[in-house]
Specification:
Cofactor: heme
Family: Belongs to the cytochrome P450 family.
CATH architecture of one domain: Orthogonal Bundle
Keywords: Heme, Iron, Metal-binding, Monooxygenase, Oxidoreductase
Number of helices: 19
Strand order of the largest sheet: 1-2-6-3
Bound molecules: protoporphyrin IX containing FE
Largest sheet: 4 strands, mixed
Number of strands: 10
Pfam families: p450
Strand content: 5-15%
Order of helices and strands: HHEEHHHHHHHHHHHHEEEEHHHHEEEEH
């Protein structure tokens, strides 16, 4: 603490007298735009300099935000977390729960084979495919949390449509309420009205749907119906946009990286059962699929940074940081830096495979026997013929990236898409299972491709593609189409 520099010297945008820094987000010009927080983070990274930290001070109604851009610092701060680490509740959520609907929430803080019918004559998915992914994620989390089907995948279900509309309204209004000047404290702005309407609708759905099955029903038995409803609400709010965004990005990454896609399809052809329900044991045999998801969440994490409110004065990256400041761990930046992930923009799921992964050995054996004997036992010839060229053309690049990655190792705090410690994502295992199932079935059945330019992304506050997700789905083998129920 004695040798630390004063907090005032930590770099960051200079606040104006009275207006602080909120005016930057209120004006919304880059790099201070709520929908382009990725660019905001890169700007702060530049201001922080090598291995340092940057801050955004004096935002209305907010403690100062501190951004340490170093995985070692991240590890150190996370590890000194108290028994109950504190992540500040977004002021607008606090307002809804603890002021506007206090009568309901009291003092409980809470936690926070349809594709075939969608393709057109050119086998392209519709421009609102992201909405379909939202529906899928909501249906899954609803079944898990509430123990009943919500009917989101049924086009005619008006309640389901209402739920989706509310989800969009909620997620688009939160960044506006949080980062722009909090005019909603003075009068009901449009974003505020959308936000409250969405939360009210969700609350009603959770109350109505709380059945005697599902995770929340178990909670209801122990802690009462109200706590269970609050938990259900939180799970629905955080478990839909996140998983849908992760699914969209992984499909895009694989569709635009034929080498990785072919390797995944080879793994699926060998290990995914098609004549019975897929179990968690089957998913355990798909390490390359898991690596594809990890690699996607490294390049395009759904949440760009995790926050903690520090409970005592601390030294961060050599600066004194006062108690009460919010530290934001910008893992999106670290996981895209050469220092932690060589060739960071290259999509190389192999960097996540361990030497002893079953299918890693299998693939090596396969390519050896292929080159030696010209045949590959147990592998489908047709798929290999297709993939031969792509596999060979870029094998060297992949090996080079993996070699460099092995040299630097994977820092356990450089890519944390689900957070860390006691407040990490409670839906991680569930989300991973959902993603694995959706992607395994889709890529096994279809050759997913992308015929448009590179996707651009916005923060809403999840990091999602802006353009319509018009993937093309070409069936890989006729007989596979009939095997799925
Ligand atoms: C790919 C999908 C998902 C991603 C990337 C994701 C990411 C995250 C992150 C980064 C956090 C903050 C962690 C921290 O501060 O250390 C979080 C918290 C949380 N997530 Fe997820 N999440 C996903 C899916 C889900 C799902 C499906 C659910 C529930 C069904 C869920 C429930 C939660 C809850 C309740 C919290 C708050 C935990 C707490 O405050 O203690 N998430 N998630």
């Amino acid at each position: 603490m004695n040798s630390a520099r004063c907090f005032a010297y930590m770099p960051g945008p200079k606040p104006l007298p009275l207006l602080g820094n909120s005016w930057r987000f209120a004006l919304g010009s880059k790099p201070w735009r709520t929908s382009a927080l990725d660019i905001t983070l890169w700007t702060l990274r530049m201001l922080a300099g090598d291995g340092g930290a940057a801050k955004v001070a004096k935002l209305f109604g907010h403690p100062d935000l501190v951004f340490p851009f170093c995985a070692d610092e991240t590890a150190r701060i996370y590890r000194r977390e108290d028994a109950m680490p504190y992540r500040a509740v977004a002021p607008c959520l606090k307002h809804y729960k603890q002021e506007l609907r206090k009568d309901f929430f009291g003092d409980e803080p809470g936690l926070i084979g349809i594709m075939e019918t969608l393709v057109d004559n050119d086998r392209e998915l519709p421009s609102d495919f992201l909405t379909e992914l939202y529906k899928w994620a909501l249906e899954s989390v609803g079944a898990w949390a509430l123990g009943s089907r919500l009917g989101c995948l049924n086009d005619n279900d008006t309640e389901a449509r209402e739920i989706i509309r509310c989800i969009h309204g909620f997620f688009h209004s939160v960044p506006v309420l949080e980062l722009s000047a909090p005019l909603w404290r003075l009068y009901a702005t449009t974003a505020y009205k959308t936000y409250v309407e969405a939360l009210d609708a969700f609350r009603m759905i959770c109350l109505k749907r709380l059945a005697d099955k599902g995770v929340c029903a178990d909670i209801a038995k122990i802690s009462g119906e109200k706590v269970a409803t609050i938990l259900a609400l939180d799970l629905l709010l955080v478990g839909v946009d996140t998983t849908a965004a992760a699914a969209a990005s992984t499909m895009y990454m694989l569709a635009t990286n034929p080498r990785a896609k072919k390797r995944l399809q080879k793994e699926l052809d060998s290990y995914l059962p098609t004549n019975r329900t897929v179990t968690s044991k089957d998913l355990n045999k798909l390490p390359y699929l898991r690596a594809c998801i990890k690699e996607t969440l490294r390049i395009k994490p759904v949440i760009l940074g995790n926050g903690r409110c520090i409970q005592s004065d601390a030294v961060i990256s050599g600066y004194e940081v006062p108690k009460g400041s919010h530290v934001v761990f910008p893992h999106y930046i670290m996981s895209n830096e050469e220092k932690y992930f060589p060739s960071p923009q290259e999509y190389v799921p192999e960097r996540w495979l361990r030497d002893n992964d079953v299918n890693q050995r299998e693939v090596i054996r396969c390519s050896v026997s292929r080159s030696r004997k010209g045949v590959v036992a147990g592998c489908e010839q047709e798929i290999l013929r297709d993939s031969e060229q792509v596999l060979h053309s870029s094998d060297d690049d992949v090996t080079a990236v993996c070699r460099k990655q092995k040299e630097v190792g994977i820092h356990p705090f450089a890519s944390l898409p689900f957070g860390f410690g006691r407040r990490m994502c409670i839906g991680k295992r569930f989300a991973e299972a959902e993603l694995q199932l959706l992607l395994a079935k889709t890529f096994h059945r279809y050759d997913v491709s992308w015929s448009y330019g590179a996707l651009t992304y916005s923060v809403t506050p999840t990091y999602v593609p802006n353009e319509p997700l018009k993937f093309t789905l070409t069936p890989r083998k006729k007989d596979r189409l009939h095997k799925y129920s």
